[in-house]
Each structure stands twice: as structure tokens, then as C-alpha cells.
Design brief:
The complex is a heterodimer.
Chain A (H helix, E strand, L loop, with lengths): L1 E6 L5 E6 L5 H7 L19 E4 L1 H4 L7 H6 L10 E3 L13 E3 L5
Parallel strand pairs in A: 1-5
Antiparallel strand pairs in A: 1-2, 3-4, 3-5
Chain B lengths: L22 H10 L2 E4 L4 E4 L2 H9 L4 E2 L6 H6 L15 H12 L2 H5 L2 H12 L7 E3 H6 L2 H10 L3 H15 L20 H9 L5 H7 L1 E3 L5 E3 L2 H32 L1 H9 L4 H11 L5 E6 L3 E3 L2 E3 L4 E5 H4 L34 H18 L4 E2 L5 E2 L8 E3 L1 E3 L1 H6 L8 H6 L3 E9 L2 E12 L2 E8 L2 E4 L1 E6 L2 E8 L5 E10 L2 E8 L4 E8 L1
Parallel strand pairs in B: 2-10
Antiparallel strand pairs in B: 1-2, 3-7, 4-14, 5-6, 7-10, 8-9, 11-14, 12-13, 15-16, 15-23, 16-17, 17-18, 17-19, 19-20, 20-21, 21-22, 22-23
Helix pairs in contact in B: 6-8, 6-16, 8-9, 8-12, 9-12, 12-16, 14-16
The chains are: A alpha+beta, B alpha+beta.
């Protein structure tokens, strides 16, 4: 299991255990983390699972695919460290990952 | 016949026999011909989830630049720049990126108050009567008004232009359409662009007029008038008919699943997942076409470059490899993405708008009509090769059923005494034969009457006489709340026919005049 911390826009932290193989989006959904809509359910077409990855963790993630880059334009307040949670597969290597959630999806 | 079209496996997008229920044919394709070839119309089709997903994501092999509709691809129709749904990179990437910014979920969700107001305007006048039509009253009204508001085009003008756009978008029932002379531009919108260029507002048209982007030559420029015109035509067409169909399927499918509808009524937090499940089981656009730009293969079978291929979203959404109990409508199922909005770079740009419209429509419907039944005898399913859904779908509430019957309160005995015909009918229901006594009082080509049975005493509704054929409906509350639709033929003192028992199927009946 990997420990993942989701920090809501207001600062509330949720530290949960996510099974490797699941996506960061599924981890949030299965643990009822508020602030991730994930309307399309993981098809990378809606842009409503937008998260900001904490600086220390960015290099550990696979880079954005072309489709993620295209779809993330649906999101608001996109930053260089914006990612779509449905495109990040959790591995043991990501144990300790911290992500911040945007003000709204 | 070969491995790609085994005996007994057939489907094409024009054959009317697949419209009412394409799913058995889709299941045969999925299981027996995962790569299917139709010789008559010369196209390939894939139907399994992972194949549809792969195909829609691979925009280099399966290109959009020759159209997304089978006949368009086959006719090699020239497609002008700006028809972004039928473009490939690099132009598609630029056009799509521009439009992504104006269709963000945040902007679409902000339309909620207006969408609710449009629903209220459409539905409020119908509450007292208890009868409404999912398409005529809501599906053909609300999405159109929302698009009109977004574009800044008055409703009435939009409706006129829309009628022409729909003609363009739609294919003829049961046949391939001729796209060789197809225009992607409707004249109706030109004056608004010119007017809006001089009178900027906060609408989408203004945003498109102002938008700048780097085009394929590396030039930073604004959209041309022609590009904007084409964008608007596509947005208006795509944003209207498909959501209309979603609203129709919402009415039809939830009428068939009253227990789940009740759960949604009591817990509106279930609406988003209910809309996703509706989109999964009845996608308004069940088929997506592409042109095969280079040789490829599925399941070890080759597809040569130059072929047309159809991705069967409607089949993939019910692939048991991906969805447990895949043919069942279940709003509580564990979420797996459906492919109704497509997948990859051409996925539906308006998915956030469609979702918010669908959710609000259902919420506002439930606010006014917690329960309804659909009148399938008077409903009409559209039958074109691009969109599948209801053209008209009348519905009524249980209250309305009762309200219309208070005029005829005489019992069968009293009616018979007053000169009405009296019949003894035996209906062969799934629970065994049911005996009932019916009175019929003719009035021109209609009749009123009453049926008494062990299930209770009910008035007949919508009694019609056509020669020796009589039809009527009746609502019963026991053993379940269902609407029965009868059709019988009279032959002297006997009658034969059948009754449709809501979701319980069809039962035959016989009758004797008494």
C-alpha cells in the first residue's frame, strides 16, 4: 500500500492508503475525498480530477501524455505542476505522495 | 463469408430491424466477430470495449479528417477547415484547444440557474395536467435554449436555423445519406457574427471573435469569419440533438425502473451516477466512424489502409469483459467509464454541458413528476444512422391517469343498463388467466368504459374504434403499478387480441359478449 495525502483547497488533509495499480483519482474516490469530481470516471475526457503535485514528487511521476495535456485545458487555474489524477497510477514508489486540490473542479 | 462475417452475425447502421433494440446484434458481434466486416456497405466494425478504446485513442491510424459518419467517409466528402470534429492534427489540436477553454466544466456548471429556469419554463405549465412529453416539452426545448444563450442567438432564430442544421446532421431512416453536396454552413447565423463583432457581449460568439491562437503556419491569428461560422453550426447541432436524446432515454429507462427512480427521487445525490448509467446503457450516438489511414489489425486480422471502420460505442458500453452484469441498468454499479462521449482527442467537447443539462433535467422532472409512465404506443424512436433516441415520448403521471377517468364513474352493471355493450374477457397474464367484465359505450370513433376484475375496478382510457379494432389503456395498481395497453378485434360476439402489461410483456386475451 502507498500512503497518499490529499490536501483540500481549504487546507484539510486526508492521509489514506491506496493500493498500487489504482489511480490517484480512484484512491480519492474510494476514500470519499471531497474536491475531486472525476465526472468521466477515468476516461481522461472531462478534466475534473485536477490536482497539484507537490514539488518534491513531480520528478517521480511519469510525464503527462498528449491526451492528458489536451484534457487538462478543461480545468481551471492550471499550473505547470497540474495533473489529472486519473492519469497517475499509484506505485510503491509513490508511498508518501502529497497532492493539493484546486478551489473547484 | 469468412471469419470476419460468420453466419448468423449481421449488423449495419441502416437496417431498421436493429433500431428498437440493437443490443442482441451487438452482443453477437462482440462474441462471434470482434472484428466484423460488412460486405454490402464495405466497412469494418469493432465492438469490444478495449478495441473501441484503442481505436478512438489512436488518431494516427484511425483519422477523423474524412468524416465520422460511414456514408461521409465512403463518399470522400471534402471537409472545410473549421469542421473540428472531422479534423486531424495539427489543425484539430489548435481548434479543439480554443474550444476547450470555452466549454470548461466550471463555465458550464455556472449555467445551472439558467438551465433550471429553462426547465421550469418548459415543465411548470404541465404539472396540473399530469401529462407531458419528454421530447416535445423538454428535450427539444431546454438544450436548444441553453445553446442559444451560450451563442447569444435568440431562441426563435436558433430554432429556425436548427431545423435546417438537424436536416444536415441527420441521415435518412434506413438508408445512407448523400453528403456529396453537403454544406457545413447554415446561412442563418452569419448576420449574428457580423452584428456581434460590432457589439461584443459575454457570450461564446464574442469569445470566439476575440480568441487568438497560433495556427499551423506558426502565425498568431484570430479565427476567420468562416471558421467561426462553422464552429457555431457544429456546436449548435451537436449540443442540441444529442442532449435531447439523453433526456428521452432518461424518461424511457427510468419508467422501466421505478424502484431505482424512487431511490433517486429520495436521494438526489444519486443523480450524477444515474445519468452516467443512462449514458452507458443508451448512448445517443452509438456508432463512431473513422477512416483507416494505414494498415492495421484487430484480433490478428488485417484491415487495409483506405477502409472505413465503425467503433460501436453502444456495444462496448455493454461489454461483459468490462462491466459486471453488463446488460442490466444499475445506478449503483461500480464506476467504469462508458465511452458515450468517446475517448481520446475527439471525445465530446460538450461533455460537461451535456452532464449538467442531463442532471438538472432529471432533478427538475422529479421535482414535478416523482413518478411517470411512458406511452410507448404513441412514442416514436428515431431511426437514422447517426443518432438513436426518441423523436417523441409521451408520458403521464399516475395522478393524471385517475384525473382523466373521473368523468366516467358508472359501474359495468350500470353502464350495461344504460345500453352499453358488456363483455367477459379472459386475459392470460403471467400470473395465470384473469377474468374481467368490461363495459363499452361507443361514441363515434372513440369509447368510454369500465373494467372490473379481481384487481379492482378501473376506467378505460384512450378508447379508440377503428372498424372492428378497439384499443384502450388501463392503469392498475395491483399487483404492481402498471399501464395496460389493449388492442382487440371484434368478430360478432367474440373478441381476440392482446394487452401489453408494462414491463411484464404481452398477454393474449379472448372475450365473449354477455
Amino acid at each position: 500500500m502507498a500512503k497518499i495525502t490529499y490536501i483540500e483547497f481549504g487546507g484539510t488533509e486526508h492521509a489514506v492508503e491506496v493500493e498500487p495499480g489504482q489511480t490517484l483519482m480512484q484512491g480519492a474516490r474510494d476514500n470519499n475525498i471531497p474536491g475531486i469530481a472525476a465526472d468521466c470516471g477515468g476516461a481522461c475526457i472531462c478534466g475534473t480530477c485536477h490536482v497539484y503535485v507537490a514539488p518534491a514528487w513531480r520528478a517521480r511521476l511519469a510525464t503527462r501524455t498528449e491526451i492528458e495535456t489536451a484534457t487538462i485545458e478543461f480545468a481551471s487555474d492550471v499550473q505547470p505542476h497540474s495533473r489529472l489524477a486519473c492519469q497517475i497510477k499509484i506505485t510503491e514508489d509513490l508511498d508518501g505522495l502529497i497532492v493539493n486540490l484546486p478551489e473547484s473542479q | 463469408m469468412n471469419a470476419l462475417s460468420p453466419p448468423g452475425v449481421h449488423w449495419d447502421p441502416y437496417d431498421q430491424k436493429y433500431f428498437a433494440n440493437p443490443y442482441p446484434a451487438f452482443a453477437r458481434l462482440r462474441e462471434q466477430a470482434p472484428l466484423y466486416y460488412n460486405e454490402q456497405y464495405d466497412f469494418y466494425a469493432v465492438s469490444r470495449y478495449e478495441d473501441v478504446e484503442r481505436g478512438l485513442l489512436d488518431r494516427d491510424t484511425f483519422i477523423s479528417g474524412k468524416g465520422g459518419i460511414l456514408e461521409m467517409i465512403k463518399q470522400n466528402v471534402p471537409i472545410p477547415p473549421g469542421v473540428f470534429i472531422f479534423e486531424d492534427p495539427p489543425l484539430h489540436t489548435m481548434h479543439r484547444s480554443l474550444l476547450t477553454r470555452v466549454f470548461t466544466p466550471k463555465k458550464m456548471n455556472a449555467l445551472e440557474p439558467q438551465i433550471r429556469a429553462f426547465c421550469a419554463k418548459a415543465l411548470d405549465p404541465l404539472v396540473a395536467g399530469g401529462r407531458f412529453n419528454f421530447i416535445d416539452d423538454l428535450g427539444a426545448e431546454m438544450p436548444l435554449r441553453v445553446i442559444g444563450m451560450l451563442l447569444g442567438i435568440p431562441d426563435e432564430d436558433l430554432k429556425n436555423a436548427q431545423a435546417r442544421v438537424n436536416e444536415n446532421l441527420r441521415t435518412e431512416a434506413g438508408q445512407a445519406s448523400d453528403y456529396t453536396d453537403h454544406s457545413f454552413i447554415d446561412e442563418g447565423y452569419e448576420e449574428y457574427i457580423d452584428w456581434r463583432a460590432k457589439n461584443p457581449s459575454d457570450d461564446l460568439m464574442t469569445e470566439l471573435l476575440k480568441a487568438e491562437f497560433v495556427d499551423e503556419t506558426g502565425t498568431n491569428r484570430k479565427l476567420t469569419r468562416e471558421e467561426i461560422l462553422i464552429f457555431i453550426n457544429i456546436i449548435a447541432g451537436a449540443g442540441n440533438e444529442t442532449t435531447n436524446r439523453l433526456i428521452g432515454w432518461t424518461g424511457k429507462v427510468l419508467a422501466e425502473h421505478p424502484a431505482q427512480r424512487r431511490q433517486i427521487y429520495e436521494n438526489r445525490g444519486l443523480i450524477p451516477q444515474a445519468i452516467e448509467e443512462l449514458l452507458r446503457v443508451e448512448p445517443p450516438g452509438p456508432v463512431v466512424g473513422r477512416y483507416v489511414a494505414k494498415d492495421t489489425e484487430f484480433h490478428g486480422q488485417k484491415i487495409p489502409a483506405g477502409s472505413a471502420i465503425l467503433f460501436l460505442v453502444g456495444a462496448a458500453n455493454r461489454d461483459p469483459r468490462k462491466f459486471t452484469d453488463s446488460e442490466t441498468f444499475d445506478i449503483h454499479r461500480r464506476r467504469v467509464p462508458h465511452l458515450t462521449f468517446g475517448y481520446g482527442f475527439h471525445s465530446c467537447l460538450g461533455n460537461a454541458l451535456a452532464r449538467i443539462e442531463g442532471r438538472i433535467a432529471l432533478d427538475e422532472l422529479l421535482n414535478r413528476f416523482p413518478e411517470w409512465d411512458v406511452d410507448l404506443d404513441n412514442a416514436h424512436l428515431s431511426s437514422t444512422s447517426t443518432v438513436r433516441g426518441w423523436e417523441t415520448l409521451p408520458a403521464y403521471t399516475p395522478k393524471a391517469g385517475k384525473a382523466t377517468s373521473v368523468t366516467a364513474t358508472a359501474t359495468a352493471e350500470e353502464a350495461a343498463a344504460a345500453g352499453a355493450e358488456k363483455w367477459k374477457i379472459v386475459l392470460k397474464t403471467p400470473m395465470g388467466p384473469q377474468e374481467m367484465v368490461m363495459s363499452i359505450t361507443r361514441d363515434g370513433d372513440g369509447f368510454t368504459g369500465r373494467i372490473e376484475s379481481p384487481m379492482g375496478s378501473e376506467n378505460v382510457n384512450a378508447g379508440k374504434i377503428d372498424g372492428e379494432t378497439l384499443s384502450w389503456t388501463m392503469e392498475v395498481t395491483k399487483p404492481a403499478k402498471i399501464k395496460l395497453s389493449f388492442e382487440v378485434k371484434l368478430d360478432g360476439d367474440t373478441m381476440t387480441g392482446h394487452a401489453k402489461l408494462g414491463m411484464f410483456g404481452k398477454s393474449s386475451l379472448t372475450g365473449q359478449r354477455i
